Prior knowledge:
2 copies of one chain form a homodimer.
Chain A: E1 22-23, H1 26-34, E2 39-43, E3 53-62, E4 76-81, H2 85-93, E5 100-114, E6 122-136, H3 140-154, H4 168-173, E7 177-189, H5 197-200, H6 203-206, E8 212-220, E9 224-225, H7 236-256
Antiparallel strand pairs in A: 1-7, 2-3, 2-5, 3-4, 4-7, 5-6, 5-8, 6-7
Amino acid sequence: MGRTLTYPKRQANTVNRYKHRATYDLGAIHSIVNASQVLHVSFNPGPDDPFPTILPMIGQMGSFDYPSAGIDEPQECYLHGYVSSRIMNLARNAEAGEGLPICIATSKVDGIILSLTPNSHSYNYRSVVLHGYAKLVTSEEEKLWAMKLITNSVVTDRWDNSRVPPDRAEMSSTVILKVAIVDGSGKIRDGGVSDERKDTGNEEVTNRIWTGVVPVWETFGDPIPSVSNKISEVPDHITNFIAKNNERNRDYAQRAVHITLPVEEQH
Amino acid sequence: MGRTLTYPKRQANTVNRYKHRATYDLGAIHSIVNASQVLHVSFNPGPDDPFPTILPMIGQMGSFDYPSAGIDEPQECYLHGYVSSRIMNLARNAEAGEGLPICIATSKVDGIILSLTPNSHSYNYRSVVLHGYAKLVTSEEEKLWAMKLITNSVVTDRWDNSRVPPDRAEMSSTVILKVAIVDGSGKIRDGGVSDERKDTGNEEVTNRIWTGVVPVWETFGDPIPSVSNKISEVPDHITNFIAKNNERNRDYAQRAVHITLPVEEQH
């Protein structure tokens, strides 16, 4: 009861700066991942390449084995995207072992913090980093389940409002990666402007420099029907999704400004 | 005259799928980087760690040695962020050699493509991946130049409208990474819905499923003054920045829907 599951702290995922903004809670971390339209996935292409590389992918947290798992309970990350043959082959070759070591990251900017001096400028934001081992999903049943999970993350209930199930060609051309999470961490910055006393106490400065926050959020516009669309009215699952997300995004960005951190935790 | 500079194609940055959306043009790639509020920077923490990791950072393309270099000419990427001691030490240790091998990525979603079947769903988007070698900026003059470049990328002209120059403590606590770019690639998807003939020719499907695009863009809200702000009116450099960016972002997302690709290039 009241138990909060957290990811283990390893050297690689321990947030050293601004500890107050760090979170290791599964619930907070999974929520940020699920609210992201795009995830950035990093992997090492091979021993001959000195550079890690990054692919943008779509993903969601979920548990196929325990579908009733809550957002604050252990889950895997399911990824879909323009899966180059590179990461597919690497993940396929890693099937025998633990899987391909990858890093998943996402960041959302919620506001621009305009302070007296450039060094005190900042963003309100939410970011997450996960490390884990990726394998291809090979079970048809699990792949179908993951495709529905990911499609519905793009627009709620879209799966049942489109032509499903996928046919045999669609199933075999779709690649889903399943990532067993090893560790994770999140960082959240909210609140207002924070300046140092050397500037707040200097009237020459405070009398000429505006300080405050510009909230930032993602807006979904009015749906534009395709030329071949035959449905006159935009369906509820789309208008509801747009209305709900626009309100949630705007509210978050505006309310984040007014959260007051203890003085020693600001900046 | 009319010359277009492109990044070299290596195996690691060659876009294999949907080639028609790939770009190697310096101008297109640099513009997407500069329009991003956050960049995702990947590096390998060390030989004992199997996972690459990712940090969110703020960055801009620029050339200190050739400050008049155009957006379509060779430039370095300057990065600032919550630089953990990890990446700082790695970059510092790499000073003697080429630098720390890193990958820089960014993605912007411009619209949700709602097609007849989940497999045809897509995003309009712009994404970039750069590979390069990172070193710390050690020259005071170059660091100050990069701090101004990065501050003004957050809000145009903010540098001259804040308390500058940074004092000695601010200069020494600021770390800027300079990345010599080795290769880069971008991907751009715009246009509308694209479905396969097996579905567009099926009236049972087309009569019940709405298809179209939901444009998506980043909105900057009304500025919220801090409790200690003494300037009654929001300055022009802020209101102009907000108005210009809101219009540009919304216009891009809405116009992207109507760009028609040749049929063989769609999807």
